Amino acid sequence: MKQYKMFLISGLFGLMIVALVSVMGVFAADEVTIQGTINEAGQVVTDNGEIYAIAFDDLGMEVMGKIDQYLELVGTVEEREGEKTFTIKLYREPQEKEAAPAGEGG
Question: Within a 13 Å sphere around the CA of 74, how many CA atoms are in the beta-carbon half?
């Protein structure tokens, strides 16, 4: 009977760990890289017109001070109620601005 209890407790503990790891994987955001210009509203506006609010953390506040600069940003995107918020992991000035595909204005 004692072995049965230990087996049951071990099994339940194992299931809890598997469930926790699975849930963490679902909520983990993938890192993405975007390029765009920082506007006066503290947003990144990409070349194709997508707008991302910048998360209010130390790095985000630093980037918000770079108004009208074209930057490459690496981080994660969270979307709520249609608004995309970008949490910056790192940023840099790109070597060169990405060229628009052939046939598009620019």
Answer: 7
